[in-house]
Amino acid sequence: QVQLVESGGGLVQAGGSLRLSCAASGSIFSFRAMGMGWYRQAPRKPRELVATISSGGTTNYADSVKVRFTISRDNDEKTVLLQMNSLNSEDTAVYYCSADVGPRRYWGQGTQVTVSS
User: Fold this and answer.
1) What DSSP string runs through the chain?
2) End-to-end CA distance of the chain, in Å?
3) Is 97 exposed, middle or buried (0-12, 13-18, 19+ CB in 10 A)?
4) Distance separating alpha carbons of residues 48 and 37, to the nearest angstrom
5) Alpha-carbon distance 62 to 68, whole Å?
6) What CA–CA distances, in Å, run from 55 to 12, 18, 69, 106?
7) Distance from the CA of 48 to the CA of which of 31, 42, 63, 113 falls in 20 to 30 A?
8) Interior CA angle at 114 toward 113 and 117, to 5°?
9) 104 beta partners
């Protein structure tokens, strides 16, 4: 079983930055082997992909956040980070961390990001 805990969300003005962190724990053999991701969900909208980073370090981003956001991982600390810059009101959502362990995907509890205009 894998537990994921996000932190770093909050209220920020448009144009500002936030850094989200996701810490993994539990009965994991190797964090290094996990594919990690960030998703977000705004009210009345489906959950959407924000960014992913594979066990090998390959990253991909939604077009809407490319360049502005950066996903990274620290395998020693068992964390995945999402650096978010140039935030706008359309980035307001609950952000969820995910971990892929074999065929199973685990989710964190989510952290609220609110961007004010």
Assistant:
1) -EEEEEE--EEEETT--EEEEEEEEES-S-GGG-EEEEEEE-TTS--EEEEEE-TT--EEE-TTTTTTEEEEEETTTTEEEEEE-S--GGG-EEEEEEEEETTEEEE---EEEEEE-
2) 40
3) buried
4) 11
5) 10
6) 31, 24, 19, 15
7) 31
8) 150
9) 101
pLDDT at site 110:
98
The two structure tokens encoding residue 74: 């620290």
What one-letter code names the amino acid at 38?
W
Which token pair is 63? 């077009």
User: How many residues can be counted in the chain?
Assistant: 117
